[in-house]
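Why does residue order matter? Because the sequence determines the fold. Keep that principle in mind as you read this record.
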Amino acid sequence: MRWGLGVLLVALLLQAARLALHKAFSIDEFQYAHAAWLMAHGQVPYRDFFEVHFPLVYQLLAPLFVLLGDDPRNVLVLRAAMLVPLAGACASVFLLNRREGRTAALLAPVLLLLSPTFLHFATEVRPDALTAALFLGALAALAMQPGSRSSSFLAGLLLAASGWGSQKALFFGGLVGAVLLVDLFLRRGRTPALIAAPGAFFLGLATTLTGVATYLTVTGSWRAWWQWCFVWASEHQRHYPGFSWREYLMPALGKEPAFFLLAVVGVGFTVRRMLQHDPNLPLRERLRTPDLLLIVAVPATFGAYALQRAPFPYSLLPFLGVLAIFAARGVLAVLSRLHTPVGRSVGFIGLLGLFAVQAAHVDALLNGGGNARQREVLARIATLTGPEDVVYDNSGGFVSRPHVHFYFYTDAYLRGSLVDLLSHDMPRALVDQGCVLRVDDLRTSGLPPALRRFLDTHYQPFDGDLFLWGQRYRVSTETGKLEDAFLAVRGDRYFVHPASALDAGALFIDGVRITTPEFDLTRGPHAVRYEGRAEGFQLLWLPRDAKRWTPRPGAPATYSRLL
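Structure:
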């Protein structure tokens, strides 16, 4: 069975890699990737651009942009990089079950990788994926037997790092930390304790916290960090249009009921074993084992999910990681009750059936064409614009291009509270920054009407997802004349579409007749006059590839995905 589990684990890791490279990107991943690109170019979150998440994942991914350059398609490399924390999470749950035997140890990462909810989000560019891996790593280091100074140092380092990965870890990591502190206080220097070497543990904590403090000090972002990540985030939690924690948990239960049921069995088995261990010892002594931290981690990680105003499913990652450990124990607890050959055969067949069903759920995550279309759009952004060209998207979907405004992305709460800024300041910023391209996303429809009107007027559809700077004109059918204006967002090359409009009449810009389809314009407003037989025409920005293009109104938008 162990060999079979080992082979299955390798196969599942390869499937996870395939998933990471081919699954469609969710809308938030582009936002996080853009933040990493900004940090690669020396910008500081909170101070230089809007951000409310702790920045560890950006700090770790930013060097990839430094090494690979500004091609938007490099977001795929970031996806590949997220396989490292995924592998770390698998190694951690393996180590946390090692004392249960090699079979239980191998079962834990297998069940984790067979969880479609976990694998869906753990292979994405997300702070939650990194945070879950760091937290599980801290628990694994604390559970090492025998403990040592190095394992205690690593536990402190990883526990603090998980907190720097996400504010959510301050809740579940804080509860685990509180249990450790209470145990140390009750022990008052006596051994054994839950921390093998308290001095080394606190040194690990201090090492990470010193690094955090140094970063915030050097970048001069202490105040901005506190304001956005705590003061504003608290206000955001109170006013965000939220939903019940059941919204996403119940579908997860529906997809993998056996996983959750086995985890419940595993928790019960572990608690029962702790209570029955050496009845001559006081209860608090029987509970003082590394498994106590795992038991505490179950409600702690679930609470970090359920207590949010908007508990999205990626917040389940730490919870599912802990449950995988108990689910593996639950499998062995169930199999140990099957004493007859027939019973064992039925048990093994049931286990294989569970593997097959969950593998089918995981494989279904690749349905819908994967990220092929999104990679096409990213390639077009790389072709149409240069690294210096400013692009607008309410979710950072351009990945590695400069954005327009401090608020480079907005959520539902911001779009409701910043109506005036988005209606008036954003159009002005689009012009001031010389923004030549915008990406349409799921949140565009939620922008204020004034901003949407500006976008519709000044950006024309290259396809259903990309819009380039330009304006439409209708010539009077009665007089055959047009008097209007064109705003050149930057001094650059522009063109007339269709070119036949020049053959059918005379186009004048600032009183000068345009005789060729392509022409140069200085930045700013220009008077437009047309006399002729054309029903209408468009003045459009000429992209970096110097190829004229035909607007495609009504083309479907396919780039932006929610989850």
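The two ends are 36 Å apart (CA to CA).
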